[in-house]
From TrEMBL:
GO molecular function terms listed in the Swiss-Prot or TrEMBL record: lyase activity
Keyword Membrane: no
Pfam families the record matches: PhnH
Gene: phnH
Protein name (record): Phosphonate C-P lyase system protein PhnH
Length: 212
């Protein structure tokens, strides 16, 4: 039985489109973009799959959280379409994906993703985090938000954090104290086809919503 599924219908055109979208997200932290060129592999979110199709190859080892690390069909498709090797060590991975179903129990305090070094800070692990929902703060936001400031942000951006696990929120708020610039990890938050980037240069404050 063939377990390989369709990736980008037009590999060159679609990957270029997604690459431009990802550059926009990374240069404008907190800006929501849409990756809509193909569905996700297995149960992986579409935006996570398309990011891997666009940015990974046989030189970028990939770490998967436990739910995905046990899905043979997913791994077969990632290897076939991206050429990646699955890396069991967080520290040795160029990219990592934390599945939505694993996020609540994921221990950020024990995470060992590579944070780069002063000479090559961009060699750090890029961590893709799948969320149940992803949106900017609005009148429907009921409690706290993540307030983003820093390079690429004109004033500030507020992200709805109502459905984010407390452990993830704590990690995002404390990461500036854990890693001395320029080292650190870049995060890509995804939900379905939506994605926004939080590079290491972005400062985060947990605060009450002011968008109401």
């Amino acid at each position: 039985m063939n377990t390989i599924t369709t990736a980008f219908p037009n590999a060159v055109h679609d990957s270029q489109h997604c690459f431009r979208q990802l550059l926009t997200a990374l240069s404008e932290p907190g800006k929501l973009i849409t990756l809509d060129r193909c569905s996700g592999f297995s149960s992986m979110h579409s935006a996570a799959t398309q990011t891997l199709l666009t940015l990974t190859d046989n030189t970028t080892p990939l770490w998967l959280s436990k739910s995905y690390a046990s899905q043979s069909t997913l791994i077969e498709n990632l290897r076939f379409h991206c050429g990646v090797s699955i890396e069991p060590s967080q520290e040795k991975a160029s990219f990592a994906v934390i599945a939505e179903q694993d996020l609540a129990e994921f221990s950020w305090g024990d995470a060992a993703f590579y944070v780069g070094n002063e000479e090559y800070p961009d060699s750090s692990t890029t961590v893709i985090v799948e969320l149940k929902a992803l949106s900017l703060a609005s009148e429907q936001t009921t409690s706290q938000v993540l307030r983003l400031t820093g390079p690429g942000i004109k004033t500030q951006v507020e992200i709805d954090s109502d459905l984010m696990p407390a452990s993830l929120i704590a990690f995002l708020e404390q990461r500036q104290d854990q890693f001395a610039f320029p080292i650190g990890i870049d995060l890509l938050l995804v939900s379905g086809e939506a994605l926004l980037a939080i590079p290491r240069t972005t400062k985060i404050e947990v605060t009450a919503c002011t968008s109401q």
